[in-house]
Design a protein that fits this description.
This protein has 390 residues and is mostly beta strands. It contains one helix and 32 strands. The strands form eight sheets. It has a five-stranded mixed sheet with strand order 1-32-28-31-30, with no helix packed on it. It has a five-stranded antiparallel sheet with strand order 24-25-26-27-29, with no helix packed on it. The longest helix is centred in the last third of the chain and has 6 residues, at 332-337. The model is unreliable at 282-344 and 362-390 (pLDDT under 50). Pfam families: WD40.
Length: 390
């Protein structure tokens, strides 16, 4: 009789692995170095941690602390330095590669929600809940310029010279960074609910905006291109509507990913108005116990071809619906852990060497199964890496 050994299911088909040590609380941002395989994660335990990712292994390199939860991070374009900002109202500059000590290079009057390094200007941009956007020369103690915002900064995206800032009250402020001290345009979000995330088009002709109402808007900057604007629904199940928490473009193919509070991420093509991959929903088996961070190495690279785990679906314009799951919790990450059925995944697509990488964070309700990998339930926050074969 022929052996059935070769038919045994592979328990780890995506070659996933966990990064240790785990963060002590929810992960708030993830950033790969633009020059090496160094990964930085910020978290609600006031820490900024760095690991080196080599093949199927990770090695902790270093960490620094803030006085309060850290909300955002960014690398300098030369890969030498990490910036981090958060609830202590400051941005720290960490000369990671040289082994130097972090120093405070930016201050706000309220928590710092977003930061971005702009190499073309050699400046750091920070957005805060104090309703200001500030430009910093890190060699000077005072900001180069303070730009008043109409409301608190909730989201920011930069693809030079285009920068868009999303604030409370659904304001979207567009800047041409060749003239950074003047608003280029201010518009009301095409979405009817609070802005959650933004992503500038790779060609700088427009941007994506996601809201807490499970909807994404595709918006062009040029008034002559407004007929190309549209919105579409996503991250919904029946009458249940979940927040879109992150939007990121693929750096090569210019398709994009969305991650939502339904615990799923999807891949889309805005030009053909199609969904390229069905919801990669993680079924969870138990009560909330930990926060997972998934790094999915995308060898398939989102080319848009339809494989065994993909499908295409035409995007349609939809009217608003009434049921909205709002999951901006006043208790921070602890509140998220008490939320039961809510998820807060985020995603970012970047290049790790020559391989596109999707970075996701989501609260784990049990063992991960289906398209990714199985991880036992734990009591702390975990980081894992997996190749995604689509």
């Amino acid at each position: 009789m022929a052996s059935l050994t070769g038919l045994t299911a592979n328990p780890n088909p995506n070659k996933s692995f966990e990064i240790l040590p785990n963060p002590g609380d929810s992960v708030s941002s993830l950033s790969f170095s633009p020059k090496s395989n160094l990964l930085v994660a910020t978290s609600w335990d006031n820490q900024v941690r760095c690991w080196e990712i080599v093949g199927g292994n990770s090695q902790p390199k270093a960490s620094i602390s803030h006085d309060q939860p850290v909300l955002c991070s960014a690398w300098k374009d030369d890969g030498t330095t990490v910036f981090s900002g958060g609830c202590d109202k400051q941005v720290k500059m960490w000369p990671l590669l040289s082994g130097g000590q972090p120093q405070t290079v930016a201050m706000h009057d309220a928590p710092v929600k977003e930061i971005a390094w702009v190499p073309q200007m050699n400046l750091l941009v920070s957005g805060s809940w104090d309703k200001t956007l500030r430009y910093w020369d890190t060699r000077q103690p005072n900001p180069v310029h303070i730009q008043q915002l109409p409301e608190r900064c909730y989201a920011l995206t930069v693809n030079y010279p285009l920068m868009i800032v999303g604030t409370a009250d659904r304001n979207l402020v567009v800047f041409n960074l060749q003239n950074p001290q003047t608003e280029f345009k201010r518009i009301q979000s095409p979405l009817k609910y609070q802005t959650r995330c933004l992503a500038a088009f790779p060609d700088q002709q427009g941007f994506l905006v996601g809201s807490i109402e499970g909807r994404v808007g595709v918006h062009h900057i040029d008034d002559s291109q407004q007929s190309k604007n549209f919105t579409f629904k996503c991250h919904r199940e029946g009458n249940d509507i979940f927040s879109v928490n992150s939007l990121n473009f693929h750096p090569v193919h210019h398709t994009f990913a969305t991650a939502g509070s339904d615990g799923a991420f999807n891949f889309w093509d805005k030009d053909s108005k199609q969904r390229l991959l069905v919801d990669a929903l993680f079924p969870f088996l138990a009560a909330p116990s930990t926060v997972m961070v998934l790094y999915l190495l995308m060898r398939y690279a989102m080319t848009g071809a339809v494989g065994p785990k993909t499908t295409t679906r035409q995007l349609q314009r939809h009217p608003s619906t009434s049921t909205v799951h709002r999951n901006l919790r006043s208790k921070g990450s602890r509140g998220l852990r008490q939320a039961g059925s809510d998820f807060i995944p985020t995603c970012r697509i970047c290049l790790l060497g020559q391989s596109p990488v999707l970075l996701c964070t989501l609260p784990c309700l049990g063992s991960l199964v289906d398209v990714n990998f199985s991880v036992p339930v734990g009591t702390d926050d975990r980081v894992s890496v997996a190749s995604l074969n689509m």
